[in-house]
Amino acid sequence: MNETSRPPLAPEDLAALSEASTATITTQLFKHGLRNTFLAGLTCVTPGAGRMVGEAFTLRYIPAREDIDTLDVYDDYDHPQRAAIEQVGPGHILVIDCRGEGRAASAGNILLTRLSVRGAAGLVTDGTLRDIGEISSLPLPVYATGSSAMTNLALHHAVDLQVPIGCAGVAVYPGDVLVGDADGVVCVPRHLVPVIARQAREQERLETFITERIAAGAPLRGTYPADPDTLRAYEESGLAPSLTD
What is the total count of domains within the chain? Predict the structure, then answer.
């Protein structure tokens, strides 16, 4: 299914996901039998950019080959890496499959600056980035495994856009929704977004209530997990979602 044939995501579902922690979202996905949704090993290198939520736009790298991946390929404005940057739309997240190879960077500050200006919702790579000092101040959520000064052409060859990829060991399909916070990044399959968004919102509200009780001195027994008395108090607190939420 191409981008134009995918039904749009409801703004209220994206808003609900943006307010839920990746921990909550992974728990809800686990309840649906999905155990491999967290992109382990990635950290946010732009801590001032805030939380991340958006649709995946994928880019796949394969290992570089010396007779093909020379510096003059960057003279081509249609090089797949450059093409990806120019095609990522507002609210989309560029997700790069680097095969977990971090000895050469997957992108640098100029490309990420362009992404930011285009209104992208973020960048996620299971590789490294160069110019990390400059990137760290961008208003764009960026997740990577670390930094490397080496140009990507040394080890990476960009081949495919908008195909299913693996990123940090997780399958990511174009149009899936990625959510990022201080813990890292989780991938929500697109067709599950409405369900996970609602359940994540409900879990967040209940856990807020539980945390307040624990902070006030309540013991774990009866509070976490919540017993019928605690659930009754939660319903009476006004925090529980209403039928119109």
Answer: 2
